[in-house]
């Protein structure tokens, strides 16, 4: 089925839950005139501990619905879903701008000589071929250390960001990387920027923290522009939040995360 792409339609932003809000905020920052539909699949989250076929089928099903609603482009604001599904999606919808996200290893690796770069991501992202290729591309410039973080996204999904539980979890998870053992950290899951301050506290302020949200937003803007799909008029865009979970607290949490300082 071919969809008609129109300038005045919204851009879809998809994640396994509320984490993709860290990408949505960058999209709004550089394209304030656009409308967005943010869909979080919290009912099926976490994706990061499922198998790739499941992640792929959830993502494809949602993309079909979002395109059916007339969205003119799709940001897969989830590293896990990007590794499992972005390629088949682009094959199926070659004429629609579809942009994924991957861990921002490049700027971290280029920040200096032989940087020690810790990449925090979900188990699926780390074991996928896409990540292996990314590592291979930078391995001779930097020391890349992958760290699967099962359980971390759940703190963000619960909105549990200020308590001791998160700090305890991070202290245990990062125990081998404290005290100057790494130069930087790449947040390879869109949920993690909401725990950025706590990660910084545990590792120390000298450790630089990277995430791919802004680069992904710029890429979407470029793709829309190239296809003549950017809105022309000056206006304030709308954001519509949708979530597969029955818990309407998720929509409230999305709004809070969008306003939060990170
Ligand atoms: N936000 C997702 C990512 O960027 C993953 C969270 C999950 O569902 O495990 O990878």
Structure overview:
- This protein has 262 residues and is α/β, with parallel strands linked by helices.
- The protein has two domains: 11-101 and 213-259, 3-Layer(aba) Sandwich (Rossmann fold); 105-211, Rossmann fold (3-Layer(aba) Sandwich).
- Helices cover 42% and strands 16% of the residues.
- The chain has eleven helices and nine strands.
- The chain has helices at 21-30, 52-68, 79-92, 105-109, 123-127, 129-138, 152-157, 164-173, 196-203, 213-226, 249-259, and strands at residues 11-15, 36-40, 73-76, 98-99, 116-121, 143-148, 184-187, 208-211, 239-243.
- A five-stranded parallel β-sheet has the order 4-3-1-2-9, with helices on both faces. A four-stranded parallel β-sheet has the order 6-5-7-8.
- α1 crosses α10 and α2 packs across α3 (79-92).
- The longest helix is centred in the N-terminal third of the chain and has 17 residues, at 52-68.
């Amino acid at each position: 089925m071919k969809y008609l792409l129109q300038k005045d339609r919204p851009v879809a932003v998809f994640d396994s839950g509320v984490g993709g809000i860290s990408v949505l905020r960058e999209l709004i920052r550089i394209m304030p005139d656009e409308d967005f539909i943010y869909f979080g699949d919290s009912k099926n989250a976490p994706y990061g501990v499922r198998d790739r076929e499941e992640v792929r089928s959830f993502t494809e099903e949602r993309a079909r619905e979002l395109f059916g609603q007339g969205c003119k482009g799709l940001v897969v604001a989830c590293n896990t879903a990007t590794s499992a599904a972005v390629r088949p999606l682009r094959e199926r919808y070659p004429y629609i701008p579809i942009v994924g996200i991957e861990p921002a290893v490049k700027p971290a690796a280029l920040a200096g000589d032989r940087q020690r770069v810790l990449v925090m991501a979900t188990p699926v992202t780390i074991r996928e071929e896409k990540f292996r290729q990314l590592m291979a591309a930078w391995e001779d410039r930097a020391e890349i250390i992958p760290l699967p973080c099962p359980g971390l996204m759940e703190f963000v999904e619960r909105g549990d960001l200020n308590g001791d539980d998160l700090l305890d979890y991070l202290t245990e998870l990062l125990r081998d990387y404290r005290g100057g053992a790494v130069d930087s950290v790449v947040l390879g899951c869109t949920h993690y920027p909401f725990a950025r301050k706590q990660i910084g506290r545990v590792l120390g302020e000298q450790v630089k923290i990277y995430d791919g949200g802004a680069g992904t937003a710029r890429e979407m803007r470029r793709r829309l522009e190239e296809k003549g799909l950017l809105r022309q008029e000056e206006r304030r865009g709308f954001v519509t939040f949708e979530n597969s979970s029955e818990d309407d607290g998720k929509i409230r949490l999305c709004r809070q995360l969008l306003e939060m300082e990170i």
